[in-house]
Amino acid sequence: MEEDNQSFFWIKSEGQRKLATENLVPGNQVYKEKLIVKKGVEYRLWDPFRSKLAAAIMNELEYFPFENKTKVLYLGASTGTTVSHISDIVGPSGIVFAVEHASRVARDFLDRVASHRSNIMPILQDARKPKEYFSVFGKVDVVYVDIAQPDQTKIAIDNCEMFLKKGGYFFLVIKTRSIDVTKSPRKIIEEEIEKLKSNFDILQSIDLHPYDKDHGMVVARLKN
Ligand code: SAM
Question: Over the chain, what is the mean pLDDT?
């Protein structure tokens, strides 16, 4: 993915081409990222060392279903670094349902990110209990999962069964060490992919090195 596709942008900064999104909340920074104004439009640099979705773009991600108006269910919002860029991309007519169970990070997420962005619906819940997300309405276009749990693939599948539309996209970040420290990362990713095959068409598997060590990302599509 090389060209600007209107979802994200490549901007020259300090002599390098850098990834950026158009800031939905001009003047607002989330993680001290640089803000750059070009032709009257403000962009936020998107750091691949801080966001695994940005790392995947740097490492030849071939599918990018996030665009204006996209509905996303995001599990593992943490302090909202990646969620904030997805919020920029989906814009005021899109929505990001952002699930986080740890109250300390969730407070930060609310203060620094969700309270400034009307297209984020924070959900302070355990991703193991999707039936308790009362604010999710209808089906979503994309489910993005980054919760670093040993049983995350099962949690992700349960959430997709409830909320992902048929043919919708699924992004699973696999923290290989959180599943089994004794196995090789490649083997772990292969095993997780096997668990997905009956429900999903697997589209791509991406190593996030050097931006993120011991992480991979699997992109899949829910079968019709
Ligand atoms: N996705 C974030 C980003 O790119 O900015 C980083 C996510 S961090 C690696 C994992 C997050 O998942 C943590 O904040 C953790 O509290 C959350 N988490 C782990 N298990 C969870 C669960 N069962 N339900 C909801 N959140 C969970």
Answer: 93
